[in-house]
Amino acid sequence: MREITYAEAIGEALSQEMRRDERVIIIGEDIGPYEGAFKVTKGLWKEFGNSRVLDTPISETAIAGAGLGAAIAGLRPVIEIMFMDFINEGADQIINHVPKVHFMSAGKLKAPLVIRTQFSAGRSTGAQHSQVLIPFLMNTPGFYIVVPSTPHDAKGLMIESIRGENPVVFVESAQLYTTKGPVPEEEYTIKFGKAEVKREGGDVTIIGISNMVQLALAAAETLSKTEGINAEVIDPRTLSPLDRSTLVASLRKTGRVVTVEPGPRTCGIGAEISASLMEEGFDWLEAPVTRVACLDTPAPFSPPLQEAYLPSERKIIDAVKSIV
């Protein structure tokens, strides 16, 4: 099978869906002739023109509001918020309206809207361009939240997002854009709420989020070679809905769990997963659930400080060894 990058996989999903369904449009800053800040929308403006690739002013509120209005009117918009940090700029539309319009209208209106965004933690982009606001969105009912870690999953989950009837926040990692993997040329979907076991193991479960899956797999290989510890690695792929059954089944097999996430530890994704495992799998826990996350500080720009701030393969290994 051919291999393409994570960015190319998302772009291919967009182009295939735009060809399949004329209601699919994309809206965002610099997505037209410039082809996107990370070149995900490469070639789309040339193929589909201004009527379906809408280059906008620098206004996240306008982008989100236009996307919501288009979705209510019957289109299938995919909007881009260039950096996840900028969700704050459009928070009134994104938080107060997009996930609530179906409920506020007693089911008369729906918003099949996909919000594409990315986090740049680990790229020395500074405190205002490195935030991972996924827990903030998880605490806002009404969204599906998608966090693909491979080009294959990115394409399948994007197509599923566009074809659904509900608002989706599709969270990409800028660190993954250039990574390559096998991706079918044909259209395919990946259902929400189904985690994938990326590596089988029996001694400990490592649950990785987004780009942390690659770190978790690297740590698992090192643990196997140097410590004789056989780690199972799981990628939830979606956080809302979260596939708790697969996570609990793995806990029941291994008795030990480490979570790894690209954002701060306090009130993070790992905290929610830990609570779920305590509630549903307490009897099988042989050790406390251990969380590997960023420090509870704003993201530093300095590369040495950034290294101390972020999760790493070494930190995952140490966390596993502390409970095995």
Structure description:
With 324 residues, the chain is an alpha/beta fold. It has two domains: 3-182, Rossmann fold, CATH 3.40.50.970; 196-323, 3-Layer(aba) Sandwich (Rossmann fold). 36% of the residues lie in helices and 20% in strands. The protein has helices at 6-20, 44-48, 60-72, 91-96, 101-104, 134-138, 151-163, 212-226, 244-254, 269-281, 303-309, 313-323; strands at residues 3-5, 24-28, 53-55, 76-81, 114-119, 144-146, 168-173, 180-182, 196-199, 204-208, 231-235, 238-240, 257-264, 290-294. Strands 3-2-4-5-7-6-12 form a seven-stranded mixed sheet, sandwiched between helices. A five-stranded mixed sheet has the order 9-11-10-13-14, sandwiched between helices. Helix 1 runs parallel beside helix 7, helix 8 (212-226) crosses helix 12 and helix 9 packs across helix 10. 50% of the residues are buried. The model has no long low-confidence stretch (mean pLDDT 97).
Please give the count of helices. 12
Annotated CATH architecture of the largest domain: 3-Layer(aba) Sandwich
Low-confidence runs: none
Q: Radius of gyration, Cα only, in angstroms?
A: 20 Å
**Order of strands side by side in the largest beta sheet?**
3-2-4-5-7-6-12
List how many beta strands DSSP finds: 14
SSE succession: EHEHEHEHHEHEHEEEEHEEHEHEHH
Structural category: alpha/beta
Arithmetic mean of pLDDT: 97
Concise synopsis of the structure shown:
The protein is of the alpha/beta class. It is 36% helix and 20% strand. The chain has two domains: 3-182, 3-Layer(aba) Sandwich (Rossmann fold), CATH 3.40.50.970; 196-323, Rossmann fold (3-Layer(aba) Sandwich).
